[in-house]
């Protein structure tokens, strides 16, 4: 008869102290240094389908028309207020902000604006115009303060320029 040699199996003890110490230090560090994404939601509206009686006579119906070569500020009833040619330096956005500040001073209760864009206008340009229409930076008492201009934005398609009805198709 053969004797089986029995090895005494020792129970392995799991030592997780070092791992727990690492987690106690690492988890708070990662939480402190993590950047959490913040989503900003902007309420947008569609322009009304018709010129109904929703607006009182003489009231400003402000339109900012974003074209591929210019930004036009207009009153739906009164016509073009100002045309600002696009510039690479961003100067056209500063001019837009100045014109809108002057309009806000004349119509302080006005909150809504229609932003109408041509199909070939880039998304980035449209967002920059929307930012300039909503708020502006003012210097008051030596500090920069954000002032509200026209926060209620409606988006739509820009009307075609006279004499360019076929311009966007195939060219």
From TrEMBL:
Keywords: Cell membrane, Membrane, Protein transport, Transmembrane, Transmembrane helix, Transport. It is found in: Cell membrane. Pfam families: ExbD. One of its GO terms (cellular component) is plasma membrane. The keyword Nucleotide-binding does not apply. The chain crosses the membrane at residues 12-32. One of its GO terms (molecular function) is transmembrane transporter activity. Its main location: membrane. It comes from the Bacteria. It is a single-pass membrane protein; Single-pass type II membrane protein. One of its GO terms (biological process) is protein transport. Belongs to the ExbD/TolR family. This is Biopolymer transporter ExbD. It comes from endosymbiont of Escarpia spicata.
